[in-house]
Amino acid sequence: MKDGELASYIPELTKMNPEGFGICLVTVDGQVYGAGDTGQAFTIQSISKAFVYATGLVDRGKEFIGRKVGVEPSGDAFNSISLHPQTGTPMNPMINAGAIALTSLVGGRTVSEQWARILGSMEAFAGRALAVDESVYRSESETGHRNRGIAWMLKNFGIIEGDPMASLENYFRQCAILVTCRDLALMAATLANGGVNPLTGQRAMPCEHLDRVLSVMASCGMYDYAGSWLTEVGIPAKSGVGGGIVAVLPGRFGIGVFSPRLDAKGNSVRGIEVCKRLSKDFGLNLFSSLSDPCMALGRIFTGADAPSRRKPTPAQSAHLQAHAQRIKYLCLHGFLAVDGIEFVIRKMQQLVGTADFFILDMHRVDGISDSAARLLNQARLGFAEDGVTVVFSRIHNRMKIMAPLSRRLPLKEDRGFLSFEDNDLAAEWCENRLLESVPSDPGAMAKLADSPLFSGLPYPLLQEVEAVSQLYPFEAGQQILQSGQLGDRRIFFIQKGQVSVLVPLKDGAHQRIATLGVGMVFGEMTLLGPAPRSASVFADQQGTCLVFDADELERISGREPLLRIILLENLAKDLAQKLRSATHWITALA
Ligand code: GLN
């Protein structure tokens, strides 16, 4: 496209290369995509207005700024003298009148302090030091008599308090700041990212005033093209006569486009076309974005599908078989807004007759809005009154989910909520509550004859086996087996105490495979032949094992083949059981 003209009312701008063309996009997590002249510098011009507006709001507050400058789209050209007829208030901060007022209102005791504040603020948005194009500045200062007229009008109405000419020079300077379209995309991404520059991590402004800046950009950022822009592109944006455009998709990414030929309204011709195409091709119009609240809720399954890895005793197992489906897992997804949470709560209410526990798995949650957190807390307390407990698992604090969820409700007695590191621990906690009614005898000593591995042995054979066993006492925290270890062929029968079977993960953490209690056996796979240990075993509490050497058992089997048959049969049954529950798990998750 070759349509449009360079801005000529600022003489120096006619020296730009009209062919320059760059497009850049920066995501809120700092991924930079660019095409064309992304490194070419040009003057920011009116795009500065959005960032100086933000700076003014931060420095002086929205009430004060609101009395000085309006937020109504004027539908007029950028250089129009759109002042309220009685009060002299400029219609909005995106046209020159409003922007010159804002430049005079940012924090600072002198105009040079104010200049330092403006430049520093823009640099924080861009994430690098910025310079002024002195010749463009001088060129505009020498010819900008219309803006001079506007500044005196603002002085006349008491909008500008100090020397209007000094503030105007700051305005001309701020317009002459040199940027690239990469800078613009980063500045936009900073607005999209709640005020934090995604590359430097530096906060350029607090969240507080963001919605105001973005909504004024949406309604006024493109001057007398604002209405068409909103219908055809539908993204808050700001243009400048230097040929740049910034566009902000809140929470997603920022766009910077540069191409100097302008249409009659002073907007980059190619810039507008790029934004139209991006919006159309990628469905970016904020008013056509469909978000489906059902997306907040993923899979639902029960504690029967996915029991904790603590192996229950037979009595516990019977109880859990009858009741574990009263533990319901709900996997939540994405950013949780109020309508998504409303959907989740509605589902929970449908399940409440068959549930005692809800485990909300937050692994896939990117964030939660304050209002959604409030609604969820309210629901949690409501369920608690009905005897149903809501617990959370896998909250990543980096997504700032904990803080909104932890905000207590003022009206009700709330002792907060339980949050577990993983689903396994959450499930065990719920199972423990279910098992409170099942009597247990923690001091009990198990009998070898009742163990899954040695059951069914004729008494004389059992005695022979017991005779070759050794007593193995262990302390809480003691490591009993080491994953990967070869040559250790011992089999352990837990007489007293509890151990956990853990596999090391890449990041140095451990994943629990099982927790085993009294009467259970570990290390028995070595009966199938020598192989490295597949997991580590640590004692959860002090206790004792009976230890058997597999070689010793094989020696007895040489004389008494029945021993081998029974051991292998028991082992096969146990493995079949494990395979069955793994299959069940996988089916529930599929
Ligand atoms: N410095 C220019 C002016 O005040 C900015 C105008 C613009 O970019 N639209 O006229």
Order of strands, main sheet, comes to 2-1-7-6-5
Give the domain tally: 3
User: What is the end-to-end distance?
Assistant: 51 Å
Relative strand content: 15-25%
What does this structure look like?
The chain is of the alpha+beta class. It has three domains: 11-282, Beta-lactamase (3-Layer(aba) Sandwich), CATH 3.40.710; 293-435, STAS domain (Transcription Regulator spoIIAA), CATH 3.30.750.24; 448-589, Jelly Rolls, CATH 2.60.120.10. 39% of the residues lie in helices and 18% in strands. It is built from 19 helices and 20 strands. The strands form five sheets. It has a five-stranded antiparallel beta sheet with strand order 2-1-7-6-5, sandwiched between helices. Helix 3 (96-105) crosses helix 7. The longest helix is centred in the last third of the chain and has 29 residues, at 561-589. The radius of gyration is 35 Å and the shape is elongated. The protein starts with 21 loop residues before the first strand and ends with a helix. The model has no long low-confidence stretch (mean pLDDT 92). Bound molecules: glutamine. Glutamine binds at residues 45-46, 78-79, 96, 140, 147, 175, 240-241, 266.
Attribute tags:
590 residues; alpha+beta; Beta-lactamase; Transcription Regulator spoIIAA; Jelly Rolls; 3 domains; five-stranded antiparallel β-sheet; five-stranded mixed β-sheet; 19 helices; 20 strands; 18% strand; elongated; binds glutamine
